[in-house]
Design brief:
Largest sheet: 6 strands, antiparallel, barrel
Number of helices: 7
Helix content: 10-25%
Length: about 350
Amino acid sequence: MEIAALVSGGVDSSVVVHLLKEAGYEPAIFYVRIGMEDKDGYMDCPSEEDIEITAFIAKKYGCRMEVVSLHEEYWEKVVSYTIDSVKRGLTPNPDMMCNRYIKFGCFEDKWGKDFDKTATGHYATTTAIDGKWWLSTAKDPVKDQTDFLGQITNLQISKLMFPIGHLMKSEVRAIAEEQGLPSAKRKDSQGICFLGKINYNDFIERYLGRRPGKIIELETGKTVGRHNGYWFHTIGQRKGLGLSGGPWFVIRKDIEENIIYVSNGYDPETQYGKTVNLQGFHFITEDPWGCFDDEREITFKVRHTPEFTHGYIRRTGDGYSVSSDKKIQGIAPGQFTVVYDGESRLCYGSGMII
């Protein structure tokens, strides 16, 4: 079997190569440059250290290595989507778009098509049921990344391998140390994939600038502060508001008037909701329910957390509505709700919150 391994220089993808070799495979290693870079050369995320470590891994295991670039495609599919979403007052998920359109989309079209499988260091698993492949959760609930994979396609999941999905993060670190891999003690990357060490607000300001406006307390209508543009803030946000007497939470945004509405306290009722309305729901493998007029039991996530929320899904016209057993904090339009079966094992797909 011919396998392409996407290796970033981090500990997870480095251990993937070791496990593939241990299983008798001869993977071809690909380092994909997907850092954000515009026509002015504003930002180039991939570091030479990453490439050096990836080259070390390739040499250690006798693998062919190729450095490939998807800068242009990344700008078109991920960065532009992010800027447009923020400008419209939405909360984007660039990591989810990157997985579908870049790592498993453009890469597959250009290089992956020559291989039987593509292996990555994601914490996820795949499950075959009646000849069909399903995305399923990882052994490590804290590191599970299926919520970032909720927009991938059936063809993509049928070709993907997640060799570390059955391991805890501590086990992955232990393997790296035992094998003397240089990435063994490297910290995990944080934040949005294309930003690297660049501050998120600096990135937003470069493309959208500043537009000062009021911060108003929702319950009283009182102006409690100022902001530099609604695009710097998201529903549910607590930090970075610059308000005293907190905590304060962003509850609502008025895009036309450029007003941020906030509520005070750790448990204001305005922070919460029990219903999430979705549009453009994407099923990864297939619709597991078919036609139904009632509701189906599910678990779901509205953000990247180890916990799953129990609830029910029902059709609402062209979309779906998810009702939660418990109140959910910070339901942000533009973000994705990722839906799983009732046992939180199989990931069915995702839809955008409206």
